[in-house]
Write a structure and sequence with these properties.
107 residues, mainly alpha
Amino acid sequence: LPPTPYEAPLPALAPLLSDQNRLLARLACHALIATGKEATEALLGVLESGSQQARVEAARALAAIGDLRSVSALFRLLDSGSVMLEHYASAGLENMGIGMNFFDPAG
């Protein structure tokens, strides 16, 4: 879906990331991704205080959105001890071009 900045559903969507129905949680994640950068603050809140499954969905969404405001939170996830959180954090940072090593091929 193309980004559709519309903030009204954010308060209802973020709590759905921890829903026991994993399909509903994933659909909420996709809807937050489609909302774009407007969802960043809500997703950062889920990373701070959400359940483990909600944190994974929030990290996935933040990685897809690519908002620079999420960089420090994604870096903290790299040492979380969760393979899924670390994966999405690494993918998000890589997609934003952060942490890449550049070198001169001539030597």
